[in-house]
Task: inverse folding
């Protein structure tokens, strides 16, 4: 019986390269492009989040959620906030120090993942893979977005800022497969099905920013952007 020739190493290598080329289009898109939704322009402006702050975040997550980690593993909610100040830098200066917050007096210091400036520029303070303290009862599962301004109406009437916010939120919700109903204002936190709080006195704690009426307008605009 005549045996077939064993392919040479060069031939095998060429075949492997061809196979990789054929499979390349099937590779999942990077975070920069999610299901055809472009990543908006985002400026990195990281607040300090060293090992100590991560340990404090993990301890906070244990106390409040029974989770022994500082990681935000699969966000299911995006919470919209406004800063009650007038600049990105003022917001950075509030979030950068790792000091107990003035309201609940806990560590780590409060923060949000992103902030949208009045001029429409988007800044990232913290990676979306790390928990931030921005909404009691939802920090274990929520990405926080701050908007520079003093009312939700002010932001809704600032076209550059609103358009940038919708681009950012739309990209994030498509990236993490979060439906429009999972995009809420801070004032709506208690009605989220993902709300969870182990400390009884904090189970009704929320804030008034981004009222439900304003969020109805925001979500209607968001629904026009399809993943």
Result:
């Amino acid at each position: 019986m005549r045996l077939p020739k064993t392919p040479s190493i060069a031939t095998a290598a060429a075949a492997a390269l061809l196979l990789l080329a054929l499979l390349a289009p099937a590779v999942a898109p990077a975070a920069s492009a999610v299901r055809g939704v472009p990543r908006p322009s985002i400026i990195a402006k990281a607040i300090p989040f060293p090992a100590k702050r991560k340990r404090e975040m993990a301890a906070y997550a244990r106390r409040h959620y029974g989770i022994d980690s500082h990681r935000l593993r699969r966000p299911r909610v995006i919470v919209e906030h406004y800063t009650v100040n007038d600049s990105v830098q003022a917001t950075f200066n509030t979030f950068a120090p790792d000091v107990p917050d003035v309201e609940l007096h806990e560590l780590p210091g409060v923060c949000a993942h992103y902030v949208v400036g009045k001029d429409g520029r988007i800044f990232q303070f913290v990676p979306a893979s790390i928990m931030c303290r921005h909404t009691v009862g939802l920090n274990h599962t929520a990405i926080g977005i701050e908007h520079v301004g003093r009312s939700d109406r002010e932001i809704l009437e600032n076209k550059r800022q609103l358009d940038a916010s919708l681009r950012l939120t739309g990209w994030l919700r498509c990236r993490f497969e979060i439906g429009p109903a999972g995009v809420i204002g801070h004032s709506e936190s208690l009605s989220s099905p993902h709300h969870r709080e182990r400390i009884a006195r904090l189970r009704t704690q929320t804030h008034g920013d981004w009222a439900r009426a304003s969020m109805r307008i925001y979500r209607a605009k968001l629904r026009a952007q399809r993943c």
